[in-house]
Structure formats: structure tokens, C-alpha cells
Amino acid sequence: MKRYPSIPRIENAPRELFDTGHLWLLEKVDGANFRFQLQRSGRIQFGDRNRWYSDPDAIPEPYHHAVRHVRDQLDRDALRRAVDDVESIVFFGEAMHRHAIEYEWDRTPSVLGFDIWAAAKDAFYPPDTAEQIFERVGLQPVNAFERERHTRDFDPESYTVPQSNWYDGPAEGVVIRNKQGQRAKLLHPDHREVDETVPIDGTASELAATYVTQRRIENVAAKLEDRQQPVTVEAVYERVLEDIVREEHARLSHGNQTVDMEPFRSAVGRVVRQSLEKRYE
């Protein structure tokens, strides 16, 4: 299935990008490449940048929050109405878990869509069409800083990367693209792939005590209640763990100091169970 092409830096941009026409300037967000496709059966197949996962249990843990988000939010009927064959298109987005930028996680969607591949056209949809489809099927597209800016009015050398839509700070960069499929990225000077991540240190029980806060548990429980879903230990545990992995991904998976997830999961489960037992005393 379709794999997303790498986006060249602005200095290596295809010449045609700036020759004529209009540009879309999209926020480049600091997530992980994520793709999915609705099957005719109604099942959704997921993939990261490099592979597709036919077995849902094989999907890497940092993507679990994104998988749940798509399963919960995707309007399958709207998608079927929008295209003749749902398997003819592949959605591309960013799974928004922590790398270098600490976004405001409470309001940042787990997935931000940025492109859609149409097999029948053997091409990506234009950015305005992709944006409309994402919104129509219940998913949030990446925000556009500008739409339809004429190439004569855009100077990459003098352009300043705007503030991010998802935290109080500069965007990681801007993806510049046109309706013919040419793209380039312009990175903010503060975000040039410098890794200053401080690894997490502590026992599984200490880490669980730090990250499984009562506020986090109550927020998850409230969301389940809002959706009229039972507040069970398993349901709360799964979502709490997904939130922690999402927000602390960079620190949990940091080189040789990666946290051993098995004891951490067990410790998270114990804290969640104890908290819910007290909640219903």
C-alpha cells in the first residue's frame, strides 16, 4: 500500500513548487507518521511510516492512542458516501505523541491528518480537498497557516514560521505545497532535530505513582461516562496507559534507558484499580 514520500527541505524543493500558481502553508507538527485505510468489511487497517499491521496486536504501543482515536471518530458511512471505493484511498496523518515539543495534550487531537492518496487518480488529493474530506469523516486536519498564497508573494528566505496551533510556542515548521503535489518543508530554527530529552528514572511503582494521577483517572472516567460507557478498571487502565505513553513517549523510549514496559504496565494497573476502588467506596 502507498507509503508517504519524504518531504525535502526548502533548499532542495522542486523548482516547480515556486514557478507559478498558489501555495498552501500548513503547520508541520512534531508527531509520528501514521496511515490508515478503511476496508470494505468495515475494519480499519493501520500503519506507521514503514509498515502496515494486519494484526492489530502488533501495532506499536505509542500508536495505541491514535488507533483508538480513529476507531472512535471515523464516520465510516460518511466516508462511503464520499468515495466510490473506500479501499482506493489511504489517509496520512501525524500520531500526536511526545517527541521534542510538549503540546497542550488535552486539546491536541491524537491524530492530525495532512494528506490523502487516491489510487484511482494515482495521486494525492489537492490540499483543499483533503482538508474537506478529513472534516467530513470526523477527523481533524492539520491547520493551514495560509491558503492559496500566490507564489510571487512567498519568499522562503524572509518567511517567519508562525506560532503553533497546539501550544504556546513556534510551530516545528511549515509544509509548503501546491495542488500539483510538489512539497517542501521549512523548519523553525528552534526545532532543528536537537534531542534534549531527559530520560525517565525510577522504579515501575515510582513512575506509576508519578504519572497515574487522580486527575488523570478522573478525566478518563468522566469521558467514559459522557459516552455512556462503563467505568471499569480495564477501560480506565487502557486509556490512562495510552495517555501516559502518548505524553511521555520520548522519555519512556530514550535509547539505552528505555523503560521496561511490562512492570510499568502492571504498576499502572495497580494504581488505577486502587483509585477506582476508593472512588466507589
UniProtKB/TrEMBL annotation:
It holds the Pfam family RNA_ligase. SUPFAM superfamilies: DNA ligase/mRNA capping enzyme, catalytic domain. It comes from the Archaea. Residues 23-181 form the RNA ligase domain. This is RNA ligase domain-containing protein.
